[in-house]
Amino acid sequence: MYAVRRYAVRHARFFERLYNSFEPVMVFLDPIFRSMGYNRLERPVAAVERAVKGLLFDCQMCGQCVLSSTGMSCPMNCPKNLRNGPCGGVRQNGHCEVKPLMKCVWIDAWEGAARMKGGDKIQTVQPPVDRSLEGSSSWLRVAREMAEQKRATREAERHALAEAFSEARAEEPAAVPLAREPDAARPHREANESTTVIETAEAPQGKV
Amino acid sequence: MADLRPEDKLDPAGLTVPVPPGHRSNSRLERVLRSGRFAVTAELNPPDSANPEDVYEAARPLSEVADAINATDASGANCHMSSLGICSLLARVGYGSVFQISCRDRNRIAIQGDVLGAAVIGVSNILCLTGDGVGVGDQPGAKPVFDFDAISLLRTLRTMRDDGMFLSGRKITSPPKIFLGAAENPCIPPFETRADRLAKKVEAGAEFIQTNYIYDVDLFKRFMDRVRDMGLHERVFILAGVGPLASARAAKWMRTNVPGIHVPDAIIERLEGAEKQGLEGKKICIELIQKIREIAGVSGVHVMAYRREELVSEIISESGVLEGRHASDRRRRRAARATSG
Predict the structure, then answer these.
(1) Binning pLDDT at 50, 70 and 90, where does residue A195 land?
(2) Does the interface predicted TM-score (ipTM) exceed 0.90?
(3) Which of B:262-281 have CB within 8 Å of A?
(4) What's the pLDDT band for B84 if we cut at 50, 70, 90?
(5) Facing residues of B128 across strands?
(6) Closest residue by Cα to residue A112 from A20, A18, A5
(7) How far apart are CA B87 and CA A99, in angstroms?
(8) Residue A37 phi/psi, 5° resolution?
(9) How does pLDDT run across A94-104, given as a tens digit for each residue?
(10) Could you report the per-residue pLDDT of B12-23, keeping only the tens digit for each?
(11) CB-based burial of residue B58 (10 Å sphere; 0-12 exposed, 13-18 middle, 19+ buried)?
């Protein structure tokens, strides 16, 4: 709804704070999501996401949400789907070239960004939307990607180690492992990272 | 065929000519800009025909005064001969062109392929545009594509050129040597963030900018102040867009019907007060060029007038921006000296 969407932009700071506390929770839950299967979660989570963000931001479910970088003004509501800023056709009254009754989504975006702490992110160059992801949950994607980033950092450490100890790597590869480890191979490390995993990891042990 | 020596191979587009150091391409426009001269580009409006002579007729007057000729890509969402087709005709006779790509009509597969196609033809300047909405054009029922926006398109083309790969990561064995441009519209809202958007375009890969029509010099000056504050004029060449207004009526029509054009009332009043409005429009345009040239950080002008290429050519010559660097100028002066001496 147009009025609610404009309200969200006016309260961009609040929604930023809300999201910033919501995101770590999703990342934290990644191990659980993985054990439940992202595939199984996709449809129900996407439905909730569609309802919530549809109401607040007129979300179009592009699946690659960038609201935090666009002042809480959804760029998919721009008739040209511009992801990086306004076009050259904005009317003198600040309204849209294509939809004269609508205020330019990107003028709103810049205003919203000015209210946000991380408003500078609006200067980040965004890639084109991957249309094959339309309709999928952005929340789950964030959880997956952020968790993956953490894992990648860990992988990078292992690569550095392998390079620094290249002789050991050649002679005793298990001492300097590089191949991707299955999650079960390092229960302690996962346990250190999230207490919820301890519960899930200990439960089957208790049964044994 | 197999035993061709390298020097025997045909190279009509000069693709094996090495790019000068510090340059991205063999573009004449890039050379003029990097050498610090005031650059001139002009717009060619594509014909609604399949006759090459129609293109050459429009291009001839522009070729005498412009470092590169922009071939528009269905501007205003009106269907005309394609920009790529025109660029190929211009390349055949050695005119420098600017291949305009609008994101409105083609998706990422088509555009990336077109860029390679353009490069082999000999195109070395590409202007990345978002494009007007289909609603304002002659076929409003068309499907708007907008797979890219101007900024993601810039980054994609830069990736193709500098990293030698498509967006898919697939390798391009011989990357295109292209000089990348984008548009900016300093005279329409949001005024405060237009320079920020320019910064984003530079960040994405823009090396030159051609602006939309500027009729409000004060507004443009304010924009350039901000550009200089941000140091952007040192990272990108800015060519200010100008054009003659045919009459007060035409100006009013443009203001209300063409997206992104701002004509201040003062200019319309001046046109209304003139005896010959067309001539006054030309005078205003020449004055605009001269005023804009004085603004620090401006590297050139981009002159546009819908299907009035002769007039554009006259305006550029009479504005004096080519003074001293045009061979024909020097010849004319020498001839004048010879007759007077």
Answers:
(1) very low
(2) no
(3) 262
(4) very high
(5) B101, B182
(6) A5
(7) 33
(8) 95, 115
(9) 999 999 999 99
(10) 556 678 899 999
(11) buried
Residue B329's domain is classified under what CATH number? Answer: 3.20.20.220
Range of the domain at B319: 25-340
Residue A9 burial (10 A CB sphere; 0-12, 13-18, 19+):
buried
d(C-alpha A208, C-alpha A64), whole Å: 42
Average pLDDT along chain A: 88
Token pair listed for B166: 């498509």
pLDDT of residue B331: 59
Length of chain B equals: 341
Q: Which residues of B touch A93 (CB under 8 A)?
A: 189
Q: Does a structural domain hold residue B5?
A: no
Low-confidence winner among A164-178, B94-108, B306-320 (lowest mean pLDDT):
A164-178
Domains in chain B: how many in total?
1
The residue written with tokens 């010849």 in the block is B331
The residues, any chain, with a CB within 8 Å of residue A149's CB and separated by 6 or more, are none
The C-alpha atoms of residue B216 and residue B284 are separated, in whole angstroms, by 11
Which residues in chain A are contacts of B259 at CB distance < 8 A?
88-89, 91, 97
**Interchain proximity A128–B133, CB inside 8 Å:** no
Residue B73 pLDDT greater than 60, yes or no: yes
Identify the bridge partners of residue B240 per DSSP, sorted by sequence position: B301
Instruction: Report if residue B303 sits inside a domain.
Output: yes
Structure tokens at B127: 């202007």
